[in-house]
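Below is how a single chain appears once it has passed through the pipeline. First comes the sequence as given, then the structure the pipeline wrote out for it. We keep one example in the README because the format questions we get most often are answered faster by looking than by reading.
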Amino acid sequence: MDIISNEAGFSKFHFHRIFRKYVGKSVADYIRSRRLSCAANLLLYTEERILDIALHYGFESQESFTRAFKAAYALPPAQYRAQMKLFVQEREEITMSEIKGWLITGTTPDQYRAALDTRIYNKGKKSVCFQSVAGEKMDPNHFGTLMQQFQADNYLGKRMRFSGFVRTEMVTDWCGLWMRIDDKLQNTLGFDNMQSRSIKGTVEWNYYACVLDIPLEADCISIGILLSGSGTVWLDDCTFEEVGKDIPVTDCRARTEVFPSEPQNLKFEA
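Resulting structure:
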């Protein structure tokens, strides 16, 4: 703080006061959040060990790093790497689809195609058909997604539901709707990909939804349908609408552990 405030030409007290005013957090909190943000970047874009990342960014142990990371991102580092890495979009991995407003991305976007289907639909006169082109030879570790992104400005502070009707045929791994909320630094603020309630095999038309709160600091919203492995999915009659707080969110980053409401057996007599 002495060095930074002197470099800025302010007293340490005055520098800290105006820093908090314009940044919204203390210098220590800001530095901690930037360390965690950089650590998240390494988790997504490198294969560095979690322990090495923790030590590199000044944490005394992997345990202390995990606690801080989970408090900021609602997921432990290993789970964050496993889930979010699937949805990192590299520019060279995006293919424009023939469907207006939608694009194809994923680990192997060239192995998937999307087209309007006037023969099979749930409502109206057409649906979108999204399928793998490699057939049963498709590696189940790869996926494609038909998606779109838009600004979050009109939805800040609201609880929004992305829903649609889905039909599947011979899905070898799994598929589902997904929704993600990012801030301006591309930090993930909300995420659901239906993996815990995924669609598999051959299923007739059914209604599915993802529900997330849109934080005030949100910048971008992404929605889409994901197909992991091979198969064909149809998507029809999608909506993106505000819902009441009585509708539960489906954020897969939410804590699933059920803890006691009070400390247990502190006297070791039970």
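The longest strand covers residues 159-182.

See the next section for the split statistics.
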